[in-house]
Amino acid sequence: MAAAVAGVAAGAAALGAAELLAGLLPGAASPIIAIGDFVISLQPPGAKQFIVDLFGEADKLLLNLFIVAVALAVAAGLGIVARTRGDLARIGFAGFGLLALGASLRAPLAAPLTSLIVAVVAVVVAIVVLGWLLRRGTGPAAAEMPAWGRRRFLVQSGAIVAAAAGSGVLGRVLLDRGRVAAIPVALPEAESTAAPLPGGVSLDVADLSPIVTPNERFYRIDTALLVPRPDIATWRLRVTGMVDRPLELTYDELVARPLVEQYVTIACVSNEVGGNLVGNALWRGVRLKDLLEEAGVRPESTQIVGRAVDGFTVGFPTVWALADDREALVAVGMNGDPLPADHGYPARLIVPGLYGYVSATKWLTEIELTTLDAFDAYWIPLGWAKEAPILTQSRIDTPRDGASVSAGTVPIAGVAWAPDRGIAGVDVQVDDGTWQPAELSAAISDATWLQFLHRWDATPGEHTIRVRATDGTGEVQTDETSRPAPDGARGHHTIRVRVS
Q1: Which listed site, 24, 148, 268, 467, has its alpha carbon 20 to 30 Å from 94?
Q2: How far apart are CA 316 and CA 283, in angstroms?
C-alpha cells in the first residue's frame, strides 16, 4: 500500500512540475495536453458523436482528468515495482517521459527544446520523489513503523500531491494566458455594417433563446484540448494551392482591409434534434470572396481547405464561397469585439449554410485551394459526410421537456433555422392534433435563425408537443429521425409536459 501511495505522489509531482514548466517556458507543451491530442488523433469513426452525446462541451475537461487518472494509476504500479526493482521503475518513468515528449513534438506550436526540458524534469522529479518516499514508507523498517510514522508518511505524500495539484493548476493558467500577446480591445470599423436589427426581431417570452447569442454563451465544440495561442507577431494568413497569386497577410494587414459585418447562425453537426450546439452572432471580417479573387482561383479548383494553427482542417466546395448570394467571411470579430480566444482568435472562417466541421475553421492560418478528390479534411476519414449543408431545424425552448404548467394559455416558443435558405414558417402540434402555424419574429436575414411563438390553450393532463419548420425553399422539416452522423440529425423536436 505504501509503495503505491509513493508512486501516486511521485507521478503527481511529475505532472505538476511538467504543467508548471509548460506554463513558464516559451513554446513548451503540456504532456497532458499533448497525450490528449494524440489520443484524439487515434479516435475511431463514431467516437466524436459518442463523446459529445455523453459529455457535451465538458468532453475536454473529462479527457484531461482521464489522462491524469491513467498516469497516476501507472505511477502507482511503478511504485509497487520499485520496492523490488528500482531500475525497472526508473525505466518505466523514463518511458512515460518519452511518450509525453513524442506526443509534444507532434504539436505544431511546440518548441522541441523546451518540450524536452519539460519531459526530462518530469522524469527526474518522479524518480527523486519516489525514492525519497520509499525510503520513508517501505522496506524492513516500515513494518515496525509506529502509527505516528505511518501518519507522517501519508501526510508527506498528501502534501506532495496537494503541491503538485497547485502547481498543475498554476501551470495550466499560465499556459492558457501567458503565451500570447493580449487580444486587441477594438477592431477597425466595418466598411459595410450590418443593418440595425428590425423591429419585432425578438419576441417577449421568458426563457426564450436571445436572437443574438452572447459570446460567453456561444457553444464551443472542437478538437483543441487547450485553446491554441498563436504569436500574433509571427502569425500569418496564407492563401495557397491552386491560385495564380498566393497571398500572405499579417494580422494588421488583414484587419486593415475593408471589413464587413453580417449576422450568421452556425451549428455543429453533432447537435441532436432540440440540442443547444447552435448560435447566432454578428461576425465582422474580410470577404473570403475578395481574398480568393485577389489570389486568382484556378478553374480546376473544386475545394477550399481551411487549416488551423494546430493542424486541424476543414474542406468545402469552392463554389460555395464564390456564390453571389452568399457572403463567406474570414472573421476577426464577434458581436462587436475581436474574436475571443475560444472562438478562433486571430481569425476564423464563417461560411453561411454549412456545418462547422466542414467550414468554420478557428485559429485559421491557411486557405488552400485544391480539389475535392485530392484531399479529405479531418473529419471525413472518421465517417462524416464531405458535403454538409445545415439541415432545416427547430427547437422548443419553453416549456421545457418534463415541465409542469398550469392550465390556461401557455406560450410554446423557441427558435428555427435553415441558413442560408431562411425560415418561411413554423408549425406546432399538440398530441395528435392538427399542425398549427406559429407566430414568427422578424427575420434578420436568411442566414440567421428566428424565434417562434404559439399560444396554447392548455388543458389538464399529459401532453406531447412537437415542432417543425419550413425553409425558404418550401421544404418542410422531416419527421424521419436520424442520428447526427454522417451529415446532421433529423426529426421533429418533441417534448412532454404535464398540465394541472
Answers
A1: 24
A2: 20
Q: What does 282-303 look like in DSSP terms, one character per residue? A: EEEEEEHHHHHHHHTB-TT--E
pLDDT value at position 175? 80
- 133's CB contacts (< 8 A; 6+ apart) are 5, 6, 9, 10, 153, 156, 157, 160
Cα(first)–Cα(last) distance of the chain, in Å? 58
Q: How many CA atoms, within 13 angstroms, populate the side-chain half-sphere of residue 427?
A: 13
pLDDT digits (tens, 9 = 90+) for 197-209: 999 999 999 999 9
Is residue 156 within 8 A of residue 7, CB to CB? The reply is: no
C-alpha atoms less than 13 angstroms from C-alpha of 325 in its C-beta half-sphere: 8
What's the chain's average pLDDT?
A: 92
Nine-digit cell string for 106: 507532434
* Cα 262 from Cα 448, distance rounded (Å): 10
The whole model's pTM is what? Answer: 0.82
User: Helix (H) and strand (E) counts for the chain?
Assistant: 11, 19
**Whether the bond into 399 is cis, omega within 30 of 0:** yes
The C-alpha cell at 160 is 506532495
Phi, psi angle pair for 10, to nearest 5°:
-65, -45
Residue 163 φ/ψ, nearest 5 degrees: -65, -40
Instruction: Tell me whether residue 100 is exposed, middle or buried, using C-beta atoms within 10 angstroms of its C-beta: 0 to 12, 13 to 18, 19 or more.
Output: buried
Tell me 143's DSSP state: H
CB 278 within 8 A of CB 392: no
* Residues 263-293: tens digit of each pLDDT: 999 999 999 999 999 999 999 999 999 999 9
Q: Which residue has the cell 487515434?
A: 42
